[in-house]
Amino acid sequence: MTDEKIAKHIEWAARPTRGLKGIRLQMSANIDPLKPGDLPIGEAVEFRATTRRDYVAAAHRKLKWRVVARYRKFNGE
Question: Is the pLDDT of residue 14 over 80?
Fold first, then answer.
């Protein structure tokens, strides 16, 4: 299975959280098992609510490829 096909199965979530220095945003990516016997994989990143848009887009791309790499590592793809 190619990286792009695995990445299509990622479920994204974003939510605000409270930090000591103000409101922060948490973005998480999860992949449920695609085949029987696979492990579920999840990663999250947190940043300030006032973060620039290009930084958030870069964090999104990095998170996506980290989840795909972990899925391949732990599930033998």
Answer: yes
